[in-house]
C-alpha cells in the first residue's frame, strides 16, 4: 500500500541504505540533505509498492554516477537529475509514470526522492541491485533483459548527452567516459521499462527495508537491545539473509585513489577484542568487493560487505574510512535473484578479476572454507 515519505523518513532511508550500499552509492549525508530540502520545498513524496504500478506505465531509474570521492568535493545544484529525466522524456516523446532508485546506496537511494519531489511523480519501492555496484550494467534490469538506453547524462553546468547503444556494456563504457569528462560525476536517467517488466526485473521493497534499518540505528530503546540483534531480525525476514559479524578491527592503512572514474583501494585492518592476532584486508571499487582474513577470502561480491563504526553502529562509506577507526565488518547475504548463474557472470568475483568461485557467505562462514 502506498505511503507518503517525509523529511523524517528520509533520515532513516539514507542511513539504512548506507548499510545495504556496501560502502558505495555516494555520500548519504549530502543525499539526505538534498532530498529533505526538496520535500520541504515541494511536499512529501508518494512511495508505491511495485504491484501498484500499472503494467503499461513507464518507469525510469534515476541516479548519480561517478567516483564518490569526487562527489563530496563537487556538490550539485540539485536539479541535475530531474533535468536528465525531462530530457529523456523529450527524446522518447513519452511521459514517465514513476521514478525509482537504480541501486540501494547512501546517495542513490535519496536522489530519486529529489526528482520525485521536484516533478510530483511517485517513486517505486524497488531497485536494480539491492546493494550498490560500481558499473551501470550491474543491474538486475540488465540481467533480465532491459535495455539501459536511451540514456541521458547531465552535469551541473547544464551540459548533457543522450546515449543510444546496442548493449548495456557499451552503455557503461560510453557513459563512464562522458562522466569523466564532466569532471568525474554525472546525473543519469536510464533503463526505461514498463511496470510489468519492473516487477519481474527488480528487487522489491528495498526502500522500506532501508527505512526500517535506519530507524533501528536512530532509535533510543529504554530496554536495551543490540542494534545488530535488531538488524538480524529485520534482515532475516527479508529477501536477504541474517547478517554475519565477520570481525572487529582497527583500520591501520587505507590506500585509495580515483582511477578511470572509480574510487579504488584497499583497507588493511588488525583484529581487536575477540579477533586479536588476526589481520584483514578489504578491497573496493566504489563499493566493498572482497574481504580476506589472514589472506583467506571470507566474503565476496555480490554478498554485502559493510563497515559499521564500532561505537555508534553507523555505516561507513569507502570514501570516509580513515586510519585508526575501530569498526565492525558485517556481511549480509544478497537476495537470491543476485546469485543466479546468469547474474554472477555480471557481478561475481571473476568479473572483478578474482580467480574465485562465488560461495555464499553463510556457507563460507559455516565451513570455514
TrEMBL record:
Entry-linked InterPro entries: S-Me-THD-like_C, S-Me-THD_C_sf, S-Me-THD_N, S-Me-THD_N_sf
Domain S-Me-THD-like C-terminal, chain residue ranges per copy: 167-361
One family name in Pfam for this protein: S-Me-THD_N
Superkingdom in the source lineage: Bacteria
Domain S-Me-THD N-terminal, residue spans: 8-164
Name used for this protein in its record: DUF917 domain-containing protein
Organism phylogeny: Bacteria, Bacillati, Bacillota, Bacilli, Bacillales
Amino acid at each position: 500500500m502506498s505511503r507518503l515519505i517525509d523529511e523524517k523518513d528520509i533520515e532513516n532511508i539514507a542511513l539504512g541504505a548506507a548499510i545495504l550500499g556496501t560502502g558505495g552509492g555516494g555520500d548519504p549525508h549530502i543525499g539526505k540533505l538534498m532530498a529533505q530540502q526538496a520535500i520541504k520545498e515541494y511536499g512529501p513524496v508518494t512511495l508505491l509498492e511495485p504491484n501498484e504500478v500499472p503494467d503499461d506505465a513507464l518507469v525510469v531509474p534515476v541516479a548519480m554516477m561517478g567516483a564518490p570521492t569526487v562527489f563530496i568535493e563537487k556538490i550539485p545544484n540539485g536539479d541535475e537529475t530531474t533535468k536528465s529525466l525531462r530530457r529523456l522524456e523529450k527524446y522518447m516523446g513519452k511521459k514517465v509514470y514513476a521514478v525509482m532508485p537504480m541501486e540501494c546506496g547512501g546517495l542513490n537511494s535519496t536522489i530519486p526522492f529529489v526528482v520525485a519531489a521536484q516533478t510530483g511523480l511517485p517513486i517505486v519501492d524497488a531497485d536494480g541491485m539491492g546493494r550498490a555496484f560500481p558499473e551501470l550494467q550491474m543491474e538486475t534490469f540488465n540481467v533480465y533483459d532491459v535495455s539501459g538506453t536511451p540514456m541521458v547524462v547531465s552535469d551541473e553546468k547544464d551540459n548533457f548527452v543522450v546515449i543510444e547503444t546496442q548493449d548495456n556494456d557499451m552503455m557503461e563504457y560510453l557513459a563512464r567516459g562522458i562522466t569523466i569528462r564532466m569532471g568525474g560525476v554525472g546525473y543519469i536517467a536510464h533503463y526505461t521499462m514498463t511496470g510489468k517488466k519492473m516487477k519481474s526485473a527488480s528487487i522489491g521493497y528495498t526502500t522500506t527495508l532501508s527505512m526500517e534499518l535506519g530507524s533501528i540505528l536512530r532509535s533510543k530503546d529504554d530496554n536495551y537491545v543490540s542494534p545488530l540483534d535488531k538488524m538480524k531480525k529485520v534482515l532475516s525476514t527479508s529477501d536477504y539473509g541474517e547478517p554475519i559479524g565477520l570481525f572487529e578491527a582497527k583500520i591501520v592503512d587505507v590506500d585509495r585513489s580515483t582511477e578511470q572514474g572509480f574510487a579504488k583501494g584497499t583497507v588493511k585492518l588488525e583484529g581487536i577484542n575477540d579477533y586479536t592476532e588476526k589481520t584483514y584486508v578489504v578491497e573496493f571499487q566504489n563499493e566493498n568487493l572482497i574481504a580476506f582474513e589472514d589472506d583467506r577470502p571470507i566474503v565476496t561480491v555480490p554478498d554485502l560487505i559493510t563497515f559499521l563504526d564500532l561505537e555508534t553502529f553507523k555505516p561507513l562509506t569507502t570514501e570516509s574510512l580513515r586510519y585508526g577507526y575501530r569498526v565492525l565488518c558485517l556481511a549480509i547475504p544478497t537476495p537470491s535473484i543476485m546469485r543466479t548463474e546468469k547474474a554472477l557472470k555480471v557481478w561475481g568475483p571473476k568479473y572483478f578479476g578474482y580467480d574465485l568461485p562465488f560461495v555464499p557467505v553463510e556457507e563460507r562462514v559455516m565451513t570455514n572454507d
